[in-house]
Amino acid sequence: MKTLKFYFTVAFFLCSIGLSAQKFEGLAKTPPMGWNSWNKFACNVSEDLIKETADAMAASGMKDAGYEYVVIDDCWQIGRDSLGFIVADPERFPSGIKALADYIHSKGLKFGIYSCAGDKTCGGRPGSRGYEYQDALMYAKWGVDYLKYDWCYTEQLNAQGAYRTMSQALKQAGRPIVFSLCEWGGNKPWLWAKEVGHLWRTTGDIHNCYDCVYNHGSWTAWGVMQILDMQDGLRQYSGPGHWNDPDMMQIGNGMPLNEQRAHFTMWAMINAPLMAGNDLRNIPAETLNVLTNKEVIALNQDSLGIQAFRYAVNDSVETWLKPLQNDEWAIVYLNRSTTPKTVTQDWKVFSVTDELSGKMVDTTGKELYLFRDLWAKKIIADTKKALTVTLPGHDVLALRVAKKPVRSRK
Ligand code: GLA
């Protein structure tokens, strides 16, 4: 009888892990979209900032465009109580984290938080090492929907083990929470993190520049183009439910419009989580137009989830291709130089097969394809005539390619 009881308990335990694990699948079928406090505000976070950001996200059109997670990054925590529970800074978050989560949910948005696998966070606040299950329970109780989990102060820790521990803790806590690994790529998370979380950082931190390397002393931050290049060789690891994360966006933090457009287009093309990192409360119209371009967002949120690839490089202009649902494709020409460049494409010789997905685009036959410019928001060309366009420096031409519907053909 005792043995029967034992087996019953084990079976029940395994079942409950299985059921809670299931809740985690399907949480990020397309790359998560939202906002994170770090790039603009660093440690200067507060309940007012987060609430005002949620208000702005809901009112500005960002929410309608698909942004949903409002994530507080580092420095919301101040210590642990006598029982070891994590405590939010009472001066900056006087109403407490549960009330903040409720507020964000009341706006129809989701709430994210940050911790670290080490003893301390990168900002020197208490980390989750040794408190993983207790922290996960607290997050679930507060109503957290997304956890970004960093990698500072992790001496002697095994990355796979540390991230698995928090993944298990979240599953045990029972609330579906998107798990974002922020390990910077040192332990090649793309090889193992698919089973652990929903997205993993592939690089160190992004710097607020289009094309630069910034030396912080003990560590280096990277410009948009540098991070883009670091994604080489990783596209096969990304797909529905598990994404490469090239870091949060710097759009709206000072780059000129053409660079913002190029940054956004490339993040969309490589299926990056679209996490805005600017001040949403004071957003210039031109930045809002970039962040809410639904046709560019549609490339990122395409249900096939196939990451784009660099197809060609010609005189500083890169051609990137992305297979989309319904046999459509995105073609992006990215001008990496500061001077204008002329792009020409002869469609009579354009036939490409993506070896990874097996998808093929071939404009050499009789069928007519139309090219929709996703920034001009109109059809600008078709395959009858070669394309010739002059691209300004640090800018993109983003095209969606679709066969012309037979019905409307004359
Ligand atoms: C690391 C992460 C950043 C940010 C900071 C917070 O640098 O990579 O994205 O979370 O820590 O301290």
What does this structure look like?
This protein has 410 residues and is α/β, with parallel strands linked by helices. Helices cover 28% and strands 24% of the residues. The chain is built from 11 helices and 22 strands. The strands form 6 sheets. The protein has an 8-stranded parallel beta sheet. The protein has a 6-stranded antiparallel beta sheet with strand order 13-14-15-22-19-20, with helices on one face. The protein has a two-stranded antiparallel ribbon with strand order 3-4. α1 packs across α7. The protein is globular. The mean pLDDT is 95.
The strand count comes to 22
Count of DSSP-assigned helices = 11
Terminal Cα span: 80 Å
Side by side, the strands of the main sheet go 11-8-7-6-5-2-1-12
Structural class: alpha/beta
Mean pLDDT over the full residue set: 95
* Biggest sheet overview: 8 strands, parallel
Instruction: Please tell me what the overall shape is.
Output: globular
What ligands are attached or bound here?
alpha-D-galactopyranose
Kindly estimate the percentage of residues that lie in beta strands according to DSSP.
Answer: 15-25%
Low-pLDDT parts are none
Q: Write down the Rg.
A: 23 Å
Q: Kindly state the percentage of residues in helix.
A: 25-40%
Question: Which descriptors apply to this entry?
Answer:
about 400 residues, alpha/beta, eight-stranded parallel beta sheet, six-stranded antiparallel beta sheet, 11 helices, about 30% helix, globular, binds alpha-D-galactopyranose
